Amino acid sequence: MKTKIIEETDLSDAINSLKKGEPVVFPTETVYGLGASVFNPQAIQRIFEIKERPSDNPLIAHISSLEQAESLSENLPPLFSILAKRFWPGPLALVVKRRPEVPAIASAGHPTIAIRMPSHPTAKKLIEEIGPLVAPSANLSGKPSPTRLRDILEDLNGKVEVVIDGGDCEIGIESTVLSLYHPVPTLLRPGKITREELEEAIGMPIALPSSVEAPLSPGMKYRHYAPKSPVRLVYHIEDLKGPFILSPFLIPGKTVRPLHMKVLYAQLREADRLGVSCIEIYCPPSTLENAALMNRLLRASGSR
Ligand code: TXA
Ligand code: MG
């Protein structure tokens, strides 16, 4: 299959592919997604094949209106409306009960479905044309999510019909995932929208999944966001050896590359292209305080 790269100004090729059940790569404000209609189980099956994604890992349904949320889940809880009003469109996915009409494969057979309204105008246009789109990150399973065109092509060139070039993603890490299905709202994946902001919005505490509950968020059990080169988190400047160092600020006497959400995955992929023997990531206290960034760093490092 030859992959066609198209501009955001004319989405007709993307719309045609989606209509005939071929998954399409499209930009969102977080990371690029590999999308297919929520209501086309064969197309969703293709997503799992293309990504080599474990079949028990559910997908996020992307919507462009609140009516679409009602087509995916009935009796949405009051907290859903509060959070949707405050944070949508934006980088927040809410897990609620799935309607029986929604194909089970969309959420890998789980009784729930994760819903997010992205703010990216191109994502919005596609969803308005096709209806709700399930979309995991547009990487091969286990690799860092793509935030730039070249990173998508590295994984999916020749495997998808159409890639929409939306430039570099603005946020650079995946959305915050919050379960409203648990008896107490539970943070399944930290993201740019923080636990504190969510608690402030709903006026109640948010739980973290206990290790017993972890399988409820299947994505979290796989080694993820991981480059081929081993990643080592370094907490003291004097322990940095180099040569490939990511740091949130310049360090006199050392050659460093930038460390922040927007460029993290691009840098991890760059390290693999260079074939470095080790990636060192300098984590001063300010980095340790950033739950979303630390979550990705720990998982990239396999918690080393
Ligand atoms: O920012 C994002 O969310 C990006 C862009 C494309 O929107 N998408 C994304 O999708 O990161 P994916 O499939 O790479 O990650 C989805 C995460 C996984 O950890 C998955 O296990 C969890 O959300 N998830 C999805 N549906 C769920 C459900 N029904 N219950 C529990 N966890 C769910
Ligand atoms: Mg992913």
Could you characterize what this model shows?
This protein has 304 residues and is an alpha/beta fold. The protein folds into two domains: 199 residues, DHBP synthase; 71 residues, no CATH class. Helix content is 30%, strand content 17%. The chain contains ten helices and 14 strands. The strands form two sheets. Strands 1-8-2-3-7-4-6-5-9-10 form a ten-stranded mixed β-sheet, sandwiched between helices. The chain has a four-stranded parallel β-sheet with strand order 11-14-12-13, with helices on one face. The site of magnesium ion has 3 residues, from loops. Magnesium ion binds next to loops.
Topology (SSEs and partners):
Elements: E1 4-7, H1 12-19, E2 24-26, E3 33-37, H2 41-51, E4 60-62, H3 66-72, H4 78-87, E5 92-97, E6 112-116, H5 121-130, E7 133-134, H6 149-156, E8 162-165, E9 176-179, E10 186-189, H7 195-202, E11 231-234, E12 245-247, E13 257-258, H8 261-274, E14 279-282, H9 285-288, H10 291-300
Parallel strand pairs: 1-8, 2-8, 4-6, 5-9, 11-14, 12-13, 12-14
Antiparallel strand pairs: 2-3, 3-7, 4-7, 5-6, 9-10
The protein binds threonylcarbamoyladenylate and magnesium ion.
